[in-house]
Design goal:
The complex is a heterodimer of chains A (133) and B (177).
Chain A (H helix, E strand, L loop, with lengths): L3 E3 L7 E5 L4 E8 L4 H19 L5 H4 L2 E11 L1 H19 L3 E8 L4 H14 L4 E4 L1
Parallel strand pairs in A: 3-4, 4-5, 5-6
Antiparallel strand pairs in A: 1-2, 2-3
Chain B lengths: L3 E8 L4 H17 L4 H25 L12 E7 L2 E11 H15 L3 H12 L13 H9 L4 E6 L4 E10 L1 H5 L2
Classes of the chains: A alpha/beta (133), B alpha+beta (177).
């Protein structure tokens, strides 16, 4: 399975899913013109990763943990629904016994970004580590 | 800054690129006026949700004859009484008014905790409208502004009304951590 990468634009985030590094990363701004269309390839990739790669019995040995990193500076409300959808797939990965570490970075002057992370963490029922930048 | 001042103003053809231009203008104006990052982020959040709402209605009205130029979509950002006022206006199908007013009235009836609960419930319902709306935009604006959302509808013709939406980001809201 190939890694997944989307470059950052003025209104969409960089999305990088790297199997070798065991890292899923989001960075930048998210206010796509069509939020569902934009995030669907990432949703599809994660589903395939969950269903095909991690379903092998050796997965836990090969991929003991996955690091998820959010470095978003802004995302619109519609994007939050898609981020939750991605996190729900990540939650399924955790249910397979793979440790999930989620780091949420936010500007110290942007308390709303902290709240957004707290909302997503509670909604998906996964703990986030919060860091100011 | 004076007690009341129009910071940004636009009326005309509306599309996704126009949203980007207006957001770039906000960034430039915020830097020129030394608006703090914290205040800028709150204005930005309300402005994007408000502009995206206008954008969602565009395809309903952009080909309707007789609406323009007098009923072109409108946007303004004002500094007023120590806070900021985001106003948008656009033609709306009369058949959409009841659903919209019921949604805004419900949001306006809620306190801070009620808004938080509605936001989380809507976030987890997984639904998107045909236009890609997640049903979170007005809740987000109400959460950020800490004020009731104001709206009016002025009839244009048999099918359309001109819908104006005003979000006041009060001085108190700006100072909430």
């Amino acid at each position: 399975m190939n890694n997944f990468y989307l470059a950052e634009t003025e209104f969409t985030p960089e999305i990088s899913f790297n199997i070798e590094k065991r890292k899923l990363a989001f960075k930048g701004v998210s206010r796509p013109e069509d939020v569902v269309k934009f995030y669907q390839p990432a949703v599809n990739w994660l589903r395939e990763f969950d269903e095909n790669v991690l379903s092998h019995s050796s997965a836990k040995l090969n991929i003991p943990s996955i690091h998820v990193e959010f470095r978003l500076t802004y995302f619109n409300s519609a994007s939050s629904k898609m981020l939750l959808q991605l996190l729900e797939i990540i939650k399924k990965v955790q249910d397979k016994g793979i440790d999930i570490i989620i780091d949420w970075y936010y500007d110290a002057n942007d308390e709303a970004m902290y709240d957004d992370g707290a909302d997503l963490s509670e909604a998906v029922n996964l703990p986030f580590n919060f860091h100011t930048i | 800054m004076p007690k009341q001042e129009v910071i940004l103003h636009y009326q005309g053809i509306f599309n996704f690129e126009i949203i980007g231009h207006l957001l770039n203008n906000l960034k430039d104006e915020s830097e020129a006026r030394n608006i703090s990052i914290s205040h800028y982020k709150k204005i930005l959040s309300v402005m994007i949700e408000a502009l995206e709402n206008v954008f969602k209605y565009c395809e309903n009205f952009e080909k309707e004859p007789g609406l323009f130029p007098q009923y072109y979509p409108f946007f303004s950002l004002e500094f007023k009484n120590g806070g900021y006022v985001v106003t948008t206006a656009n033609p709306i199908l009369k058949s959409d008014i009841e659903k919209l007013t019921s949604h805004i009235d419900k949001i306006n009836s809620l306190d801070k905790e009620g808004l938080r609960q509605l936001f989380r419930a809507t976030l987890t319902n997984g639904q998107f409208s045909a236009k890609g709306g997640a049903g979170l935009g007005f809740i987000e604006m109400a959460k950020t502004s800490c004020e009731k959302i104001e709206y009016t509808f002025v009839p244009i013709n048999e099918r359309f009304s001109y819908y104006t939406c005003v979000v006041n980001i009060s001085q108190n809201a700006l100072n909430v951590e």
